[in-house]
Amino acid sequence: RASSRGLDLETEVELTLEQVVTGVDKTLEFERVDFCDHCSGSGAKPGTSPQRCATCSGYGQVQQQVQSFFGVSVRVTNCPRCKGKGTIVTDPCPKCRGTGRQRKKRILTVHIPPGVREGQVVRIRGEGEPAAAGTDRGDLHCYVRVVEHALLKRRGDDLFCHVPISFSQAALGGKVQVPTLAGTEELKMPAGTQNGRVFEMKKRGLPNQRTGKPANQYIQVFIEVPQKLNARQREILTDYAKTEEDNVTPQRKSFFEKLKETFASKK
């Protein structure tokens, strides 16, 4: 007999990272093959009923004898007359022409849970198409697509971003506004912040799907070197450069000492 379970359907739902944090209800609109309203899916004209197939006696399957090298065997196949349904429509429904099915628009609200990932499938049971025989529907598979954020990158449940700072901010320390999914927040940097340093902001990441606990966000700062200086800025930096010989930073001092030792040993 023909399968009693219908076909699965696929669709796509698009989310922002902000929606991934909280979860969201999405309204989907799609078309599917559904039961005919006129005949309630029987395929028979209202007031009539499908008749039992005389070829298969209502079983939907027939046996065939097959002659082969090894002898005669029996093969079971779907009935060629009723196509496995077990019934025949003698007086078809004028609306669906005896198929019992018609295309319909379906509007459905789907809940997407927090923490979903790109390409993940959310399955909604029983929202697919009904089978040719039987009433059990297939499922609807919603593939999640997460829109790329302008400033934040996702790695697992953690979030990462790069934030530019000035030379004076790095040297003197200070505060800088950084993006998070909840809005901008203030990050305090100590004096002497080095280029490429990574700061951690706890619980600013995405929630874990199993535990619900939020991950972290990491901010990597990089120092922007100005391409154009006015006269005053150039004067200040020139004066500062003259003092660098007397104020060698620990990292530079270590580097130059190793450099001197390396090449001195080769002489």
Structure description:
- This protein has 267 residues and is of the alpha+beta class.
- It has helices spanning 17-22, 167-172, 231-243, 250-264, and strands spanning 9-15, 24-35, 51-52, 61-68, 71-78, 87-88, 101-112, 121-124, 140-146, 153-155, 158-165, 174-180, 183-189, 198-201, 217-223.
- The strands form 6 sheets. The protein has a 4-stranded mixed beta sheet with strand order 10-11-15-14. Strands 1-9-8 form a 3-stranded mixed beta sheet. Strands 2-7 form a two-stranded antiparallel ribbon.
- It is elongated, with a radius of gyration of 35 Å.
- 17% of the residues are buried.
- The model has no long low-confidence stretch (mean pLDDT 89).
What are the SSEs and their pairings?
Elements: E1 9-15, H1 17-22, E2 24-35, E3 51-52, E4 61-68, E5 71-78, E6 87-88, E7 101-112, E8 121-124, E9 140-146, E10 153-155, E11 158-165, H2 167-172, E12 174-180, E13 183-189, E14 198-201, E15 217-223, H3 231-243, H4 250-264
Parallel strand pairs: 1-9, 11-15
Antiparallel strand pairs: 2-7, 3-6, 4-5, 8-9, 10-11, 12-13, 14-15
List the main descriptive attributes of the protein structure presented here.
three-stranded mixed sheet
Task: Produce a short descriptive summary.
The protein has 267 residues and is an alpha+beta fold. The protein has helices spanning 17-22, 167-172, 231-243, 250-264; strands at residues 9-15, 24-35, 51-52, 61-68, 71-78, 87-88, 101-112, 121-124, 140-146, 153-155, 158-165, 174-180, 183-189, 198-201, 217-223.
